[in-house]
Amino acid sequence: MTRMFDLRKLRVGRLGKRSLQVTAGAALLAAGAMALQKPESAWQLPSAKAAAQSAETPRAPALRLLTQSQYQNIITGIFGPDMAVKVRFAPVQRLDGLLAVGASTAVMTGGGIDPLESTARAVAQQVVSPERRGYLIGCEPTNAKTADEACARDFLSRTGRLLFRRPLTTRELDDAVAMAGSAAVSSGSFYEGLGDALAGLLVSPQFLYIWENAEPGPAGSNGWRLDGYSKASRLSFLLWNTAPDDALLAAAERGELHTLAGVQKQFDRMLASPLYRDGVRAFFDDFLVNEAFETLSKDTQFYPAMTVKAIGEAREQMLRTVVDHLVARNGDYRDLFTTRRTFLSSDLAVLYRIPLDTGSQGWVPYEFPAHDPRVGIQSQIGFLAKYAHPARSSPTRRGRAVREVLLCQHVPDPPPNVDFSNFEDPAGEFTTARDRLNAHNANPICAGCHKITDPIGLTLENFDGAGQFRVAERGTPIDVSGSLDGVEFADAIGLGKALRDNPSLRSCIVNRLYAYSIGQHVPTEAEARLEQYQATLDKRGYRFDEMLRLIVTDPSFFSVQPLVATRSTSKDIPHRSAARTAMKGARHAD
Amino acid sequence: MLIKNLDRISRRGILRGALNGAAVTVSLPFLDMLLNDSGTAFAATGQALPERFGTWFWGLGIDPKIFKPKVGPLTEALPPQLAALEKVKQHINVFTNFDVLTDGAPNLCHFTGWVALRTGSPPAGRGNLPGPSLDTAVADAIGGGTRFKSVQLAATGAPRDSYSFQSASAVNPPEISAVDFYTKIFGPEFQDPNSPNFTPDPRIMTRKSVLSAVTEQRNDLARTLGAADKARLDQYYTSIREVENRLALQLEKPAPAPNCKIPAKPEEVPVGLDVEVVKARHRAMTDLLAMALVCNQTKVFNMVYSDGGSSLVRRGLDKTHHAFTHEEPIDPVKGFQILSSAFVNDAMTEWGYFVEKLASTAEGDGSLLDRTLIYAHSDCELAKVHSLPSIPMFTAGTLNGKVKAGQHIDGNAQAATRLGFTVQRLMGVPIGSWGTKSMEAKQEIGEIIA
Q1: Chain A with chain B: Cβ pairs closer than 8 A
Q2: What is the pTM assigned to this prediction?
Q3: Measured between alpha carbons, how far is residue A74 from residues A161, A163, B31, B186, B236 in Å?
Q4: B22 and chain A: CB distance < 8 Å anywhere?
Q5: Contact indicator for B57, B135 with CB cutoff of 8 Å
Q6: ipTM
């Protein structure tokens, strides 16, 4: 009760920026070796005084719907990569530029749950199938034709812990075991019964939603924090795009995620894992609005090589480039927009007009030569084709995408009653997109918005609607000069450099990555914190692991506000008990 | 090893001894109902055959110059853009000069219009859906007693093309593949209503019991959530209940449906937005939908032919329908955009196909369309300027004689929500008004009420 009262005071407190700087400064310090010596309470949450001075209200715990890829990763992670997981989630609203933020408001409709119930059964049937049961169940029933509580309990407790990202409560486990038993008796098969119980876990909200739970912070701190399991999930879905593994859950059970050293230890372990690449891919798949590829199509009469397969590979090329640059090479995020390194498949090589024999390798590394205008992911076919017409380029769409996706800026919709018809050039005078847009922009109402998009997009006019290189349009050489926020350039190479050096590129990635990491809208009060991150990264460089480390080792990352009126303190939920035990240990350490 | 916890499951009556094909206890609306001799009603009750409701949407409006028929009965030949509807004009009503009024809210291109016609209110911003779509209210009113409360179909094949929703965060996902739709309706779980034999599948009962068990921890979970998330959890359980109800229906012998015939499995339509591909997908889905309705698999449906800012393309043309609406000049002789207009003509052709399919699908002593009411509309009138006045709307079907068809109704600049209000009232939604501010409608469009 005392803590609850304190928190209410905290939430209505009026504070200045100075305390935020103190907090962020502490986060930076925490990344150093000295911080490893700090007691848990000092790292975990701001002091009572600092918290009382903070202008940043802690966020409520999130309840996020799993994504389709997370669902698949969890199933194949637990039961093996050969599992067939055909699952389809209802589309989630993109909020603040991210589906990950929309997932925190997503509601499961009847039409949405229906296919998930089918998938749950299909997964469960595979797990208990004669081919897999021997190595996936982990025990054998005394009699395979009826119930076996001990074996069912053993399997469901182990598997349920991985699926729910925490141990099952006594009641949850009892219910699941009872379901397995009942269904085994009625079907005459222990394995069928176990499959039914597993299907129940897979369709339950505890699995389909990522639950975050708040608990009081340790003595000496002022505020609430995520419990250990919630921290494990937040780390795991951020870094691996899947549920925590056994080691991470064990660290949560031991209370290690309540210490900076414990978090850093797990962070380092997770970054060293191959799964880290999945995490990076998932973020950029979301950040780059890549779901648009799922419905992208081109007119093969104009672009014969731009098949459905090639479009899918264009998406893959972007992600491979990102992962290679940020993970394998530990490159600076900004250099993604100037890098010449990428990967090619044989289908893409045709579109790039590069002689390439990939043989049986599928994908091969490739580096565009120094004179080539292809620099950065914005010059790759995936980006160029996605933001274009079915059979024509679009400087406006490309410019808008640079502004909105890469720079996090808002480009207004066109007014509803604009006449675009001079764009069509009824007199046949225009040969290039620049001509057409110049004519269109004679209307000052149009020019207002086009001047913030077109000087970017026109620089990419050496690439047609499928992203293929060209030097002329309708026989006229293409002028690819352009500008970005006052920086002028002659071609796509110049655009890449200007983009790389644009301040909004840096603030955008920090904002989006932070929102993605917490799975929620970033409130205005957090802007000062993000500016501090940016200031640090400006000095250290925008390496992705550095950005992530900065976020997850900040004391604010795991701080939350309690659900004042509704938050349970039920002793029936063992992970809460475990967390309390861990807290006692932490207090003792203090 | 004995199971110690069967009491919990038994207490809930989950399995009830039905698992080996024994009798079950779930009662259903159509239980022991048989059609009368003339096939117009269930013999046991005299109740009329079920009524259905659906929506049909196309993007990017119409060309006013070649669209509007003469006001009143559709006795004369229809204008060029409605020519494809000539053979079904006795089944439809055309509504023009009904306006979407924004009360100062912005006209968000290709968004405000359809949102207002589905919710009764213009949206405050892009992405904002100010209320549930009206089809969900109809589904609440009539959607029980069939396997699916409603079905959503997107002929575009795009997973985001659904205009059926509870909120922006709760959009009912569409079927995007005719093959998947076939499997959903007529796949292994389909029970032929005309089969002389019926044995409850014990696996269905088990599945239902699994879902019942999922709800066991509801209270424990709910108390760990704030109000907004608790509401989301409640919706999850409501959705689980929907699936449970569907499974419960499958444990009863379905009511006879003499005109129900399992269709052939369709060929998969390639991915893409080429207008010919979309038309093929639309027709495949429409054919399946008609039989799904006759076979009593659902009573509410939503079909999207093309999305609000239609991304449809035509092979050989370099840009989308949407781009043509803005960039193509108006032909000085004909007075409309020729290439853009061709896309609208295609939409009207498909709307005609849809109506004709339901009209030609026999049910009882009439057709499926005789017992159906369809509400069709676009997102604007003239897409070139995104005009919201005179937003085009249709109805089709007579809903067991409750609706008069074959007319063109001039709305005289009244709120377009009057039609949404009217169809909801006809479908039995208990509302006294619908819409907000200038869009609030309190009076049905009397001309179409029989």
Answers
A1: 254
A2: 0.86
A3: 12, 8, 42, 31, 21
A4: no
A5: no
A6: 0.85
